[in-house]
Amino acid sequence: MPAGTSRTGARLRLAALLTPPLLWLGLAYLGSLAVLLLSAFWTTDSFTSDVVHIWNTDNFRTLLTDPVYRTITLRTLGVAVAVTLIDALLALPMAFFMARVASGRWRRALFVAVLMPLWAGYLVKAYAWRVMLGEHGLVNAVLAPLGLTGPGYGLPAAVLVLAYLWLPYMILPVFAALERLPTPHLEASADLGAGAWRTLRLVVLPAVRPALLAGSVFTFSLSLGDYLTVQIVGGRTQLLGNVIASQVTLDLPLAAALSAVPVVLVVCYLAAVRRAGALDSL
Amino acid sequence: MRNTNVWKAAAAATVLLLAVGCGSGGSGGGGDDRGGGFRAPDVPMKKTLGKGEGQVNIIAWAGYAEDGSNDPNTDWVHPFEKQTGCKVNTKVAGTSDEMVSLMKTGQYDTVSASGDATLRLIASGDAAPVNTKLVPNYKDIFAGLKKQPFNSVDGQMYGIPHGRGANLLMYRTDKVKPAPDSWRAVFEDAPKHAGKVTAYDSPIYIADAALYLMKTEPQLGIKNPYALDQKQLDAAVALLKKQHGNIGEYWSDYQKEVTAFKGGDSVIGTTWQVIANLTKAEKAPVKAVLPKEGATGWSDTWMVAAKAEHPNCAYKWLDWIVSPKVNAQVAEYFGEAPANAEACKETADPKHCATYHADDESYYKRVHFWTTPVKQCLDGRTNVQCTDYAQWTRAWTEIKG
Amino acid sequence: MAEDKTPGTRPAPPATAVRLTALTKDFGTVRAVDHAELAIQEGEFFSLLGPSGSGKSTLLRLIAGFERPTSGRVELAGRDVTALPPHRRDVHTVFQDYALFPHMTVEQNVGYALRVAGVRKDERRARAREALATVRLEDYGARRPAQLSGGQRQRVALARALVDRPGLLLLDEPLGALDLKLRQEMQTELKQIQRTTGITFLLVTHDQEEALTMSDRLAVLDGGRIAQTGPPQEIYDRPATAFVAGFVGVTNLVRGAAAQRLTGRPGTYSIRPERIRITPLDEWDRAGTGSPGERSVTGRITDIAHAGPHTRFRVRLDEGGDRLTVLRLNTSGSALPARADTPVRLAWDADDAYPVPS
User: Which of C247, C270, C291 is the last residue of a domain?
Assistant: First the structure.
């Protein structure tokens, strides 16, 4: 008897504990997504910009038939892929140095250095890059002696700054995976005749692959959804994010339809990554 | 198991997108059939003025509600607060579209709307008719600004005129030589400054291209840059697409333009006088001119929100901002013609009103005030349908590619 | 260096598989290996025996190339490899916790060295299967390491290290994680494999019984120094230091006044417990005096422990009160009236008191 009541009590406590977060997830989080998708089927009064609640699918038709949206979608996808690749290429050696080479004080200092950008505000960092990439900015000043000029504002600058912004999200999981990688595995590989590159390819990369994929989920989806960076350093470039942002004021339903594009892309990406087994380590 | 579920979800989402893409024929939106007489929704007008509510939330163009933070000597917000007890909360908007969108949130009491926003706000019922009897300074407003198509409906004022001016051509005097006197500098001649040309980031900027075509390609038959049939719009879009290749970045945030010109990332492009002033204050060698083709411009009106939470303070602000002294200050700071005739006596530069042609209606024939394009051609043509703002919006996205 | 591993092209086998010269390794201020001198013959089963912290694992890592020595020299098959990284040395290691690659199958693990050496895939598979057959795991090639038991993993690690027949195989406490029965089986199996392959084995262990039973020769390490090198019997019978005497097997170490009393000479002596004969005093007196060259003392049993095949006695000596341990094999019909407090006489040949430098 007492056992039964205490079990009921435990269940009640569990329910009380889980209800608020589940409500949040269900109502606030998924609910807002549902409303967004729903409003994509409405239309806008072209004069007053008022949302008119007439069910139609014109917005999605526009997305699929108007070549400009295809161009923008592909460009955005390209940016997300480029940012993810750059971050992966930067994160691997950095995380490797942090996890397996640097000792004690060095490692702590590097850890702080990697995390520090996360403490500063997003806008502050983006505007700092705007200053650095400007005509008389630091980038041009550093490159001038080499006879080079920086990328200026534009697509390359947007990729560069996004890669900078999301780098910690790639380094941290890769660092954790490399730290977990047992030293004897590396020694065994060398012992069996593999040089550094061979060990990297055959032993290290397979071990950090799930972490790389997990990190890429962050860099990919964050890049897909970003609109401020491209607005600040992207020059005349249009990506999905800032098209959505500018349409929100003019045509909310079209903006809602547009924002379904990154949602679909991210869902597809997650499914692909899930298949590769990376979400197990999330 | 979970694996297939994720795939199913992704597939379902894709199918959904495809399905809606293939379905549905025409049946445009609700606003397409806007035609003949403009009818304003029935929104009650304020009858009497009561006590101030202690604060007022306003949407303004940059430079319209200065509190001394940009320039300690430029402050007409604090004196207002001291006099009326209404604390001012300012939201600076970069485009008319932003203003319309902000007004729809219902969190603002008053807005300095340009001609391309006023009628939209009236039509949507977001702006209320204004009782000019409750605004004593209204009597001194230039007659030429009263009861205009962009600020009144059937003789009922929907706001208090604030001032008007032209969009100018700004350039770096050290980089752009010889000094330009035509919009050609940002169109045909844009490649000279490839990557350093800037333009206003709003569909309404299409009118700038239309204005230029109106002068340079008369065979297109453009009479009013806001009344473009499909062929004329296509010509403007083609011009802007060519320009796009030379654009460094577009601007709608005035601070972004100031830093771009100061840093040399932009060297030529459209601007407002106030931005030119701010850029000069940052010690950048810039100059702003009105090119020979004329320009697009604005005639602004302070409107009161239909659901204003602080209507009394809003009316106090309307009266304050068009009072002779303050109207003169704003006009000189922003670089526009004041709306209040008495303001011309209060300007620091006694010739300000003459310079900006404050009551010279013939001058303002050269300036094409921002107006929302609609299907019914604004230039009076009835044999064709003009392109509306929704089409301009789509075109703008296409131009930026 | 891949050609070194192909038996056909290897130069005529030099007699010495491993030669260490004045090898020293410091970790900060700690000297882990101190001027180690060692020569291991080709085809030998050699063990490094020592307690934890004696430097035996460091010594192995220096030979494998995972550590660079502070000074001194490592030669493998007559070639100086001191400056070479691990993958340029003709040495494979069986790691203490096996270090199998978790993302590869058993067969891929075993074939790793061949893959790295650029061996074609089909040949690689054939040789990997062959190596797995050597350790009796031919049916396990498709499994992942996580699906194997500890003993099976151990054998996979062995197969992986043997697949391309290295000149030297290092085994770092390979049996430490196995239970007793499995460990004894593996000892036999290891010895067998070493004999059939003829590969030089270098085993690191802290288990003196393992070292004594399996090795042709062994070295005992004490605080980073090699205390003694030799065949098991020699190490056992003639320990070079008191440490070796105490660490290898059980012994009675007597020094100072006790040594004077028991041997009639100064110094330190090791008397193995099984070399001491224990006889009840009354029985001794009936038998008369002991043989010449034999020393004997009287005492009383304080403690008796029956350990299956033998019995261990603790005896307190009447003169001086020293305690000695005595082992007596329980052969048939030789039961000793064993009770605590029984007066006994202990006797041993004078030669069995082996002098050790203290």
Answer: C247
Alpha-carbon distance of C313 to C298, in angstroms, equals 14
Domains of chain B with bracketed CATH: 55-165+297-369 (3.40.190.10), 168-271+373-400 (3.40.190.10)
pLDDT at B15: 41
Angle at A161 between CA A160 and CA A162, to 5 degrees: 95
Give CA–CA dist C309/C328, Å, rounded.
Answer: 9
Residues C290 and C216 occupy one common structural domain: no
Does one domain contain both C166 and C310? no
Closest residue in chain B to residue A273, using alpha carbons only: B3
| Residue C2 with chain A: CB contacts under 8 Å | 193
C123 and C38 housed in the same domain: yes
Q: What is the DSSP letter of B356?
A: T
Q: Do A190 and C86 touch (CB under 8 A)?
A: yes
Instruction: State how far the alpha carbon of A228 is from the alpha carbons of A157, B246, B256, B282, C189, in Å.
Output: 13, 22, 13, 25, 67
A192: nearest CB among C97, C102, C112: C112
Instruction: Report if residue A93 sits inside a domain.
Output: yes
* Domain extent at residue C70: 2-247
d(CA B27, CA A43): 11
Searching chain A, which residue's CA lies closest to the CA of residue B6?
Answer: A271
Lowest mean pLDDT among B6-20, B188-202, B237-251, C211-225: B6-20
ipTM of the complex: 0.80
User: Using one digit for the tens of pLDDT, what is the confidence trace for B314-343?
Assistant: 999 999 999 999 999 999 999 899 999 999
- Which chain C residue has the Cα nearest residue A210? C103
- Domain housing A133: 67-281
Three-state secondary structure call for residue B194: coil
If one counts the domains in chain C, the total is 2
C176 and C285 inside one domain = no
The domain that holds C267 is classified in CATH as 2.40.50.100
Contact C215, C331 (CB under 8 A): no
With a CB cutoff of 8 Å and minimum separation 6, the contacts of B100 are: A48, A49, A249, B117, B120, B121, B124, B126
Chains C and B touch (3+ CB pairs under 8 A): no
The total number of structural domains that make up chain A:
1
Q: How far apart are CA B196 and CA B208, in angstroms?
A: 18
* Mean residue pLDDT across chain C: 88
Cα of A265 to nearest chain C Cα, Å: 29
Convert the pLDDT of each residue in B41-97 to its tens digit. 888 999 998 899 999 999 999 999 999 988 888 999 999 999 999 999 999 999 998
C236 and C284 housed in the same domain: no
Instruction: Inspect the interface and report whether the beta carbons of B398 and A68 lie closer than 8 Å.
Output: yes
End-to-end CA distance of chain B: 41
Cβ pairs bridging A and C (under 8 Å): 65
Could you read off the pLDDT of A82-104 as tens digits, one per residue?
999 999 999 999 999 998 888 88
In a mutational test of the A interface, the residue from C3, C66, C116 whose CB has the highest number of chain A CBs within 10 Å is C116
B interface test, pick of A33, A41, A47 with most B CB neighbours within 10 Å: A47
Q: How far is A107 from chain C (nearest CA, A)?
A: 19
Contact C87 A202 (CB under 8 A): no
**Domain end point (choices C196, C214, C247):** C247
Q: Which of residues 169-228 of A touch C (CB under 8 A)?
A: 182, 184-185, 187-195, 198, 202-203, 206-207
H helix or E strand, kind and range, residue B355: helix B352-355
Instruction: Tell me what the mean pLDDT of segment C309-321 comes to.
Output: 89
C154 and C271 together in one domain:
no
